[in-house]
Design a protein that fits this description.
Radius of gyration of chain B: 20 Å
Order of helices and strands of chain B: HHHHHHHHHHHHH
Number of domains of chain B: 1
Oligomer: heterodimer
Order of helices and strands of chain A: EEEHEEHEHHHEHEHEEHH
Number of strands of chain B: 0
Number of helices of chain A: 9
Strand order of the largest sheet of chain A: 6-7-8-3-9-10
Structural class of chain A: alpha/beta
CATH class of chain A: Alpha Beta
Largest sheet of chain A: 6 strands, mixed
Helix content of chain B: over 70%
Structural class of chain B: mainly alpha
Strand content of chain A: 25-35%
Chain lengths: ~240, ~280
């Protein structure tokens, strides 16, 4: 069986600026991997390419064995994603938003209605089901973003700074949800928070200035560099 | 699920978005007000007579349901410009407001998304236009006891023009970073750039039938009333502003011209949107 995520020599230029430099890595099924790095390291660019939002300048990316560039629709059907700080159509309610996205993901009828109720309960937005999103705070939108990522119960979750905007309670609840989800899903998420990464993942890919500096178990990095923090500082030396 | 099924879903929710926005009701209210005022001015200020004061009595065209419809629908067709406000931010806003981060990572082709957005904008515009034409038809029936047959052709031309303008707005929306920029660019292009080119060509003696704004003028050409003769009377001596008022383009040619603009610019907007990175 193919790996859930395969990144092969992925390179991305933005108007001549090299944002991603021949990054390669593989994520096995049901593995949880964090993409860790300072601001501007290339984390978001990697995730955007995986979700078909950016086209790579060179290299390939596969989700569940499907080429993201050549068969984008089929590839992203396996994914639930939160990218950057997502915004929603402010005139819609969470129910309408999730109905729209669910229909695009081939869900319908009772299955969709039941699942919407389920995910809104999970992210504790059940009392806001029919309130227009224009009234939502940053944290509530982040919760809704998680709800839409989980809606179709995808085998792969791609999350970019998913706890951004959440209050401490929200962050704890979010980690609890992820703890459950990662039992049956591949979780690939970007963060620059070492503590969050250490709490959620076993494996980490450290990226800096577009290059993959390390891809290993956190425990092994701790052993090699004496602590996770020292490993991160050493591997991202020179970063601003 | 087939791509056609997805298109129906996208169109339904995009239409819901349009209907939830205040601008839809603003455009609808403005249109109703504009049509009502036009009808009021036409009848209250005796516009058919005033328009032709400089025309020799024997050449004057008597007031009729056709002339009334021509005058009223020429004004109500301004409602087409409402299309710009629906379409200007249709694509750009997905990038500008970051809603594309939720919409684009779905198993649906960007072409389907653009087509769905287009259909929603077109339906919203067509609804407003239909209201304007229905009010005009009702007024014609009330004042003259008949609805001119040319009104249907005029409506068809107005819809074709609306599709051309929506495509123009989509083309800008697919390229521009912001919806406001795309909206302004569309309005300036249609109302200033196209007008300057059309007028320039007309002054030089060329027939600018291939210009979208000139094709739009054909909305008044389906009633069998010589537009230039009626409105040229305003200039005195039968002058026609160097051709500017010779607006009665061939309806069929104008219809096809509008649809050509619609098709070409729409395909361009799809092509650009498919290649646009969500940075």
């Amino acid at each position: 069986m193919q790996d859930s995520i395969v990144i092969d020599n992925l390179t991305k230029y933005y108007n001549g600026f090299l944002a991603l430099d021949k990054v390669s890595l593989r994520v096995k099924w049901n593995e949880d991997v964090a993409l860790l790095g300072p601001n501007g390291a290339g984390k978001t660019t990697t995730l955007k390419i995986l979700c078909g939002l950016l086209r790579p300048s060179a290299g390939k990316a596969y989700l569940a064995g499907v080429n993201v560039v050549e068969e984008r629709e089929q590839a992203v059907s396996k994914v639930g994603a939160i990218l950057e700080t997502p915004e929603f159509y402010q005139f819609f309610t969470p129910r309408e938003t999730l109905s729209y996205l669910g229909r695009l993901r081939d869900m319908d009828g009772r299955e969709l209605k039941g699942r919407i109720k389920e995910v809104l309960n999970l992210v504790r937005l059940n009392e806001w089901t029919d309130v227009k999103i224009e009234k939502f705070s940053r944290g509530m939108k982040q919760r809704l973003a998680l709800a839409q990522a989980l809606l179709h119960d995808p085998p792969i979750l791609i999350l970019d700074e998913p706890s951004l905007g959440l209050d401490p309670r929200g962050m704890v609840e979010f980690r609890e949800i992820l703890k459950e989800e990662r039992k049956k899903k591949t979780v690939f998420f970007a963060s620059h928070l070492l503590t969050e990464v250490a709490l959620i993942c076993k494996k980490v890919a450290i990226i800096d200035r577009g290059k993959l500096r390390a891809y290993d178990d956190i425990s092994k990095l701790k052993k090699k560099y004496r602590s996770f923090e020292k490993a991160y500082l050493k591997l991202t030396e020179g970063a601003v | 699920m087939s791509e056609f099924e997805k298109l129906k879903v996208v169109t339904k929710y995009e239409l819901l978005k349009q209907i939830r926005r205040k601008r839809f009701y603003g455009a609808l209210a403005m249109t109703i007000l504009a049509v009502a005022l036009t009808i009021g001015f036409y009848k209250g200020l005796d516009i058919p007579t005033k328009l032709q004061e400089n025309v020799p009595v024997l050449l004057r065209i008597p007031d009729s349901a056709d002339m009334f419809a021509m005058f009223v629908t020429s004004m109500s067709a301004l409602a087409i410009l409402g299309a710009v406000f629906f379409a200007g931010d249709a694509i750009a806003s997905e990038f500008e407001r970051k809603t594309g981060y939720i919409l684009f990572p779905n198993p649906v082709k960007r072409t389907t998304l653009v087509v769905g957005k287009y259909l929603a904008c077109f339906i919203a515009t067509a609804t407003i236009l239909a209201v304007a034409y229905l009010i005009s038809a009702g007024a014609s029936l009330a004042f003259y006891g008949q609805v001119p047959g040319g009104m249907l052709g005029s409506f068809a031309l107005a819809l074709a023009l609306a599709s051309g303008i929506i495509s123009l707005a989509f083309a800008f929306s697919s390229v521009f970073k912001g919806g406001m920029g795309a909206t302004i660019a569309t309005l300036l292009t249609y109302m200033v750039v196209f007008s300057v080119i059309s007028s320039g060509l007309a002054y030089a003696g060329y027939n600018p039938w291939f210009m979208l704004d000139r094709a739009g003028d054909a909305i008044t050409s389906t009633y069998g009333v010589p537009f230039a003769q009626v409105f040229g009377g305003m200039m005195g001596g039968g002058q026609t502003m160097g051709g500017m008022m010779q607006a009665s383009s061939d309806p069929v040619l104008s219809f096809l011209t509008s649809l050509t603009y619609a098709g070409v610019l729409f395909l361009l907007s799809i092509w650009v949107t498919k290649r646009r990175d969500m940075i």
